[in-house]
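Supplementary Methods S3. Complex input for the zinc ion-bound model.
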Amino acid sequence: MSSEQLLGFLRRGKLGEFHNAAKAAVYFGASLFVVLVVLSNSITAVLKTIWCDVGNNWAVGWEYLEQHLSPLQLYFLGSYVIPICLYWLYGSFYLYFDLQENSMLRRYKVQPEKNEPVDREKLWVCIKTVLFNQAVVSLPISFGFYYLYQWRGCSMTLPLPSFKAFLCQMGFCILFEEILFYYSHRILHIPFFYRLIHKKHHQWTAPIGVAAVYCYPAEHIFSNMLPILTGPLIVGAHAAVTFVWIYMAILNTIHVHSGYHVPFLPSPQSHDWHHYRFNENFGVIGLMDYLHGTDTYFKQSDQFYRHRTYFSLDEYSARVQKAEKKTNAVLTKS
Ligand SMILES: [Zn+2]
Ligand SMILES: [Zn+2]
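Predicted complex, serialized as structure tokens:
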């Protein structure tokens, strides 16, 4: 059989269909591969350019700090003073709206009509507890970690880590926090520990930003601080990576407790649901909840339907209305 006869045979009937489909798949796959390679190369190149520019400025700033501060002072500033300032700055932003009756962020409330305005007595108790956790509980733990990082050989001097090292170390910290926070948080939901420790944090069934570390010292150490500070220790991260990681974690925890699903920002629905329902969404990024199936009811909820980042000011309201209509329709039917 000549090659043309063979091709003719292959193009007929089922084999022909298979041949055409395989050919299309190969063409499509190859084109997709080329597009992805080109895209990933250009994205990496763009990110690297940005990183070099930012990195140069960072290096200049870091050099200045190194010349004027001792390693301990630099660590104290980067891992303790700035995170506390960030906590209160970002927390106060949401608190400003929490204290008003008809604030302009009202339409973005995750749990409408809760904390509108926030109970001032409850808020004052919360602020005192948070200040105590930051001033008394966090301080020795932070300093303990300074010596642990030194022992581990984590660099505090120039050169700053490469773009690749930064991404890898951040990725590790994110995953490690997810695992450690998930299990420590689940342990806190065992009835004995819940009654003894974690119930305090859950007094806010509709949380607010500044209540992110409203809890007993034991919880603050084991469930808030250790999952964040241990990742950089294990991976031997440069202090600059550790600082950025701590800032990201602080901003994230304020945001997911804020009670506001503001457009252009990540969704806080998952942790808000944890405060609302108590028994689901124990993790940070959702990976461990997915693996353990502790997000089943959340995935069937209206809150999950809204659980995404919005890119227009009206999109969120439209989705809320749509979800409400859906719920009302189900209620009318049943
Ligand atoms: Zn909890
Ligand atoms: Zn919480």
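The pocket of zinc ion (ligand 2) is lined by residues 201, 207, 257, 271, 275 (CB under 6 Å). The chain has two domains: 1-68, 69-333.
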